[in-house]
Amino acid sequence: MALSDLPVAGAAEEEAEDEALARGAALEAFGESVEIRALLGRLRVVHGERAAREVAEERFRVIMDKYQEQPHLLDPHLEWMMNLLLDMVRDKTSPTALVHLAFKFLYIITKVRGYKVFLRLFPHEVADVQPVLDMFSGQNPTDHETWETRYMLLLWLSMTCLIPFDFSRFDGNLLTQPEETRVSTMDRILRIAQAYLAVSDKARDAAAVLVSRFITRPDVRQRKMAGFLDWSLCTLARSSFQTMEGVIAMDGTLQALAQIFKHGKREDCLPYASTVLRSLDGCRLSESNQTLLRKLGVKLVQRLGLTFLRPKVATWRYQRGCRSLAANLQLSAQDQSEQKPLEVPPDSDEDYDIPDGVESVIEQLLVGLKDKDTVVRWSAAKGIGRMAGRLPRVLADDVVGSVLDCFSFQETDKAWHGGCLALAELGRRGLLLPSRLKEVVAVILKALTYEEKRGACSVGANVRDAACYVCWAFARAYEPQELRPFVTSIASALVISAVFDRDVNCRRAASAAFQENVGRQGTFPHGIDIVTTADYFAVGNRANCFLVISVFIAGFPEYTRPMIDHLVAMKICHWDGDVRELSAKALHNLAQLAPEYSAAQVLPGLLSMALSSDLHTRHGAILACAEVTYALFKLAVQRDRPVTDYLEENVVQGLRQIHQQLWERQLYRGLGGELMRQAGSATAVVTGVSGHILIMYRSTMAAAVCWGSHPFCVKLLALCKEEIKKSKDIQKLLSSIAVLCGMVQFCGDVRKKVLLQLALLLCHPFPVIRKATASRVYEMVLTYSDVVAADVLDEVMAVLSDTAWDAALPVVREQRNRLCDLLGVPRPQLVSKPGAC
């Protein structure tokens, strides 16, 4: 049996996500429109009955959730659904319970479709402002059962703020009575927004949207913007992120400020940007353990930075001439080679005065790239890309250099991940000029194989995934002639990640990036053949990648050696035992495609690793030595050549000494001894190199060992008894039964002692052990005819097969003693101490 045909622990079992094929949404239209219309029409009837109301709500939720992945299918039906529900809200005779139920249904639709799309459908005429404001008078911000009502009312109010009339026209004469003044519409809206920015439910998010629409109105900006910003900064100053109330207040305020600086005009927000930035620095949000606060802080910082810089499209950015995939595929390789590189125009705004706050903003964004949470790093990366697009060329290049500093091995995996995200953002925006590609590609190739051991596992999967995103972005951003010097290295790295990465999401990301490069660049060697083989579904099974797809791709000479080198350098010493075993098997397959290289370069390197001080390296290297040697031996047999044509004498000698050196260094003992014994037994295949010598003496050796007085069998029995003495390990006991049944081949006293030991196991306290022993002994009697005399053979077989060995011990003991008499073995005697009989 070939060593590579042996089962690998864990490799034969597909991962949970690999067993089920990923199925995309296959819906073509909103098929439940009739049912939904009838369901909404019954709300006036069922709202008073709790059971019927809950059934209707659950049914509506189930139908809507089906369209989470294809929410655009709801677009033709959103308007009539909203109108049906708002009719109930506007009806003065509608009970309060019906109004809350209608808003709950509106929220479910908003959740599926997204509030930005659904918001535009709200009625926003002049006549809608006062009714919506009046509805807030009956709301209780602390009622957690009706938060959907307040959330939808705030969104509706934010839409009514878009009416092109001054809010003062709604007020008329505010002096209704002498010495009594009504609150203006503008103040009412502002008070509502401020109140709901501090609530603990989702209405806080809608309040931030309301603020952004309200404060940025021309009439409100002149009167209320400065006051609201002062209130917001005071709220941030007196709130602490160490208390729950402080976190809620800061969250709502930061959301509101970020929305204002996003939707407000630059000239309106610029006078306040420096003040807000200084106040934000004083909050020290980077020290908070609240992910959302740090994310909002980074988001607000980048919005402030964009406010400092004039909005413009950088004239110096790299622009790919043709971004059409269809047009790119029509170009032949000759046409692409004849295209001239695009020249980057000089920056016309080099003398542009950069505000002082920009440096602080970029510094905070660079720190955000190293944050411990992905959402913060992702927000910082997008901020870096947006800011660099408004900077002069020299300053933007300095930002790129600072991002590249994240790829130091002194940095953590968080910095590497943030750096990859930032490079992808810069690349897809054309802000990474071709002159920087050499440095960038070098660090991305390292990131594609980045992995660090942490305790019993490792980190780095997110870094490798982000590096694949960078390669995907580069495929879309650059002309083929710009990436041509790096095609070989990028293609090999992506293939290696798609085939040999431990994590399925990284393999699929690398496959997608490789496919994008094949389509956009058209210069990857054998790209179409590889894409059709290593597609999204094919790379889902790790064993299939290591043992099948790798062989196909390694058949192309451009990828053979890089794949072999990666296995030897990165995967043979991997912390995961399954990966090491799969890598050894993969080397077995690939060695036959490059036998000379494997014999001259790979095997000597593996032999030097076989005695490493690191357990994982030692284990993987020994397994790989066995696999590569056996692969070369099989290849020599197929080609009718001596194996010495591939293996030099010093390599053969090194293989023979592995076991002896491990024994002398006592590496078969201790915590790693089990792995070393497994690997040492695997190297037995190397005896195929000189196996003919063993065959000559096999019969003589076997005859000598089978004598009962030989020390081998005596010591083996003693060791076996010592291992199972007082043991409760079922697996160990079951293994010992198999060993003992095999030892009955020895003659003399050893056989009687083995039968006595088996008799003891027939009365073991564990029923499963008794049954397994009886079954094994039955097979043993059939296999070895000289163990039982012919005149009692039938009776022995009847006792073994007819006895219920899982019955009570007194019953079993009687049958066991009868069996001992038939076999000529003394009956075991009961002792006072508890234990096996």
From TrEMBL:
The keyword Cytoplasm applies. It comes from Marmota monax. Residues 292-528 form the Tubulin-folding cofactor D ARM repeats domain. Keywords: Cell junction, Cell membrane, Chaperone, Cytoplasm, Cytoskeleton, Membrane, Repeat, Tight junction. GO terms for molecular function: beta-tubulin binding; GTPase activator activity. It comes from the Eukaryota. This is Tubulin-specific chaperone D. Belongs to the TBCD family.
